[in-house]
Amino acid sequence: MGKARTAGSPMTDPFAYEFRLGEYIFFIPAADRVTVVYDMAFKDITDKAIARVFLQEFNEVRRVRELASAPHPNFLFTAPQELTGCAQLTTMLKENPERIGYISFGLQPRHLDADHLDKTIDHIVQFRSYLHYHITCSK
Fold first, then answer.
1. Cα–Cα dist 1/26, whole Å
2. Mean pLDDT for the chain overall
3. Over the stretch 103-121, which tens digit does the pLDDT of each residue have?
4. What is d(CA 109, CA 33) in angstroms, rounded to the nearest whole number?
5. Half-sphere exposure of residue 50: CA atoms within 13 angstroms, side-chain side
6. What is d(CA 12, CA 15) in angstroms, rounded to the nearest whole number?
7. pLDDT tens figures, 61-97
8. What is the pLDDT of residue 5?
9. DSSP-derived secondary structure letter, 44
10. What is the spatial distance between Cα 81 and Cα 65, in angstroms, rounded to a whole number?
11. How many other CB atoms are there within 10 angstroms of residue 78's CB atom?
12. Which residues contact 52 (CB under 8 A, 6 or more apart)?
C-alpha cells in the first residue's frame, strides 16, 4: 500500500485483514492519508482492563508537542466513522463480546515516503504485539 502511495497511484479500495481469529486490521486509503484501524479484543478480563487504560492514554499522548510528527492515534469504544461509512467493511463489524474498542492511526504522506515507509509499516504491523507486551509487563 505504501509503495502504491509513493508511486503516485494510491490504492482507492479499503480492505481488511483478519490478523487474529475475530480481530481485524482495516486499511482505509484516502487522497491525503491512509487510516489504519485495529479491532481490539481480549479474552482475559484483566487484559481488557489494562488494555483499555493503555489505549486511552494514546488519546492523551497525541497532545505532546514532541510527538506531533508521529501518526495520530485515536482510541474509540465504537467503530470510527471511517469504518461505519464504508459498506465494504461494515460486514466485518460483527458483535464481539471480547472487543474493547478500536484504535486508529492516521498515516500522512510524510509517514509513507521512501525514507519512512519501512519504519512506519514495522510499527503498524507490530502494534498488537507491542500492546500485548506492555499488558503482560503490567501484570
1. 12
2. 80
3. 888 887 777 778 877 888 8
4. 6
5. 15
6. 10
7. 767 766 666 778 888 888 888 787 777 677 667 777 7
8. 47
9. S
10. 26
11. 11
12. 100, 101
- Sign of the dihedral through C-alpha 53, 56, 61, 63: negative
| One-letter amino acid for residue 83 of the chain | L
Residues 12 and 86 sit within 8 Å (Cβ to Cβ): no
- Residue 21 neighbours by CB distance under 10 Å: 6
CA pair distance 16, 36, nearest whole angstrom: 10
**Residue 54: left if φ>0, alpha if ψ -120 to 50, beta else—which one?**
alpha
Q: Rg of the Cα trace of the chain? A: 15
At 3, list the grid cell.
Answer: 509503495
pTM of the model: 0.79
User: Nine-digit cell at 14?
Assistant: 479499503
All cell numbers assigned to 25: 486490521
The cell 467493511 sits on which residue? 89
